Amino acid sequence: MHRPLLRCLSLLGLTLGVAAPLVARAGDGGMSLGETKARASNCFACHAIDHKLVGPAYDAVADRYRGKGGATVAMLVKKIKEGGAGNWGDIAMTAHPELSDADITEMVHWILSLHGQPSEAKANQPAATQGESHTYKTPDGKPVTTDFAVFTGPDQKQVTDAVFHGYEQYNSYCFRCHGGDAIGGEYAPDLRKSLEGGMTWQQFLSTAMAGRQAKGMPSWAGFFEEKDIRAIYDYIKARQLDLVPPGRPPSAQD
Length: 254
Hints:
The protein has a two-stranded antiparallel ribbon. The protein has two domains: about 25-120, Cytochrome c-like domain (Cytochrome Bc1 Complex, Chain D, domain 2), CATH 1.10.760.10; about 130-240, Cytochrome c-like domain (Cytochrome Bc1 Complex, Chain D, domain 2). The chain is elongated, with a radius of gyration of 24 Å. A hairpin with a 5-residue loop joins strand 1 (about 135) and strand 2. About 45% of the residues lie in helices and about 5% in strands. It is mainly alpha-helical and about 250 residues long. It is built from ten helices and two strands; from the N terminus they run ααααααββαααα. Helix 2 crosses helix 5, helix 4 crosses helix 5 and helix 7 packs across helix 10. Keywords: Electron transport, Heme, Iron, Metal-binding, Signal, Transport. It comes from Dyella thiooxydans.
């Protein structure tokens, strides 16, 4: 082979190597190595790709730090490793000393790659559930409206699987401090009153995931997923509105 041609091929190979994507792929599953590592850790207990949970959405992080260069990557790696608060609110992010710098770097590259990319989570989210409202009647005939389904039908005889799941999770774990059937306990307040007083879903989620260490409430991040906390919230809200009585609610599980 002629030396000029060999030199060109070598330069081409070097160029392709340098231009390779920073986001490495994990095998043949299509998911990036960084996303794979993030999902294998507890990162998704407090973060989602396209909406805020306890911490910011990953696509919001990508938007804020787009095009900032290697120093930003190093800063984010350090932040994930050491934890702390200040950049996105007052709730401190848990430190992750168990993760290697190399693994965190892969995660950061994946997060930053989300800028301007369509979110698969958004694409798969049913549009019909957005802004949906349901109206029910309490035992005394008072109409109340919720943004989630409490019952499977208009007869209000059986609660949905989600509300029943919330009942199960609450009365398996939360009751220890907040009292059975969400009526308040010896160590923690009546959560029905918290919701009645204006606590929003987002505040409820953040409190459950981050905990309140000063008051002895543990963080449930890594144990519960967002859908579990939402089910618990829906159950408590249904109790607060007097739609679900104390005890095991009738459901498809019966």
